[in-house]
Model the fold of this input.
Amino acid sequence: MNEDKINIEESILHIVKELLKEWESQFYVINYYADIPLISRSNIDSSNYFSEIEINYYNKSGDFGTFTSIIIFMQNQQVLKIDDAYKFITEKIRECYDELSL
Done:
């Protein structure tokens, strides 16, 4: 079961990285970039297992701009399905882009 969770998380992380690559030029125009996202996990054997991918955005000077959090597991239950990830993550990235474009 733990291996299944890790595979799900890694699949969603792959989607995040691909979408960030697609959006990279648009963020560049407004002088922002995203850091390399990682998966944050609580104790994988816990009944309260939690995992998320956080994306932080910085301007070209290195100053923090905004962030978004993509929760995958909460209280040991999967809350983001792989089939829904592309659309959901695209919307999260778009929200950050819109916020930074103001």
